[in-house]
Amino acid sequence: MAHIYGKTPHSLDEHHLHFRPFSREGFLNDLYRCNGVICNAGFELPSEALQLGKRLLLRPLNGQMEQESNALTIEKLGLGSVMPKLDTRIVEDWLSLTSGKRQHYPDVARLIAEWIHSGREENLEELSGRIWRQVHHQSVL
Q1: What is the side-by-side order of every strand in the sheet holding 36-39?
Q2: CB of 131 closer than 8 Å to CB of 69
Q3: pTM to 2 decimals?
Q4: Residue 39: which pLDDT band, with cuts at 50, 70 and 90?
């Protein structure tokens, strides 16, 4: 079963495809219940999917360098798969993968606020290193 959110005036079900109009609540409910996410290679949705332990298939938007970079990073870290264009074979292969593994990300906003409150005893590079050492990714491929 696939839930597809986009510019559609009303919900439409065709076999295993469930087209849905934009709905934050509906989208979040489906995101929490799903096994995997196919999306563009932006930052927010892939990060949320990884944090929830969802397998991930990225399709970077054409001409968007940051999306290409995000996709390459996810692929090199073994956190998801990438398809340069919509490809049925790649989607079928991805669907046969086991489920993803939950990724842990530290509360960066809290750590930066604590750093500022402490009088910035460590420099920004040290703070960055300390935060990144808390990220322990587990390959999902």
Answers
A1: 36-39, 55-58, 81-82
A2: no
A3: 0.73
A4: very high
Burial class of residue 27 (count of CB atoms within 10 Å of its CB; 0-12, 13-18, 19+): middle
Query: Six-digit token pair at 140?
Result: 């999902």
Sign of CA dihedral 4, 71, 48, 109: negative
Beta strands in the chain (DSSP E): 2-6, 12-14, 17-21, 36-39, 55-58, 81-82
Question: How far apart are alpha carbons 34 and 104 in whole angstroms?
Answer: 19
pLDDT in tens, 41-92: 998 999 999 989 899 999 999 999 999 999 999 999 888 999 999 899 999 9
Q: Which residue carries 């005893």 as its tokens? A: 121
